[in-house]
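Issue 218. Parser rejects a valid record. Input:
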Amino acid sequence: EVQLVESGGGLVQPGGSLRLSCAASGFTFRSFAMSWLRQAPGKGLEWVSSINSIGGLTSAADSVKGRFTISRDNVKNTLYLQMNSLKPEDTAVYYCAKRERYSKEVGGYWGQGTQVTVSS
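Output the parser choked on:
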């Protein structure tokens, strides 16, 4: 059974940083591309960032480019999202997603999510 467990969310002031983690199990993590998605209050799911299976290719949405960095550890079966210079509009539930192929769109199988709130 595929399991994706996100952690690391919380309340942070504007300009602050957080590092999200996603612990993966139930599949061969190193063989799959992964993504981060998010859903802001009252809005639909939004693609944030993706990384290929070996970590050599990444992409990010324009809204987070230069502030968020996706990475992975294929030994620890863990996906990360380093978020810097956070803005109130980054407030959302963040989900990691297993992808059948590398993609810059919403999709895949995602976990339960972790809440990120950016507020003073």
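Fixed in the parser; the record now loads. The chain has a mean pLDDT of 97.
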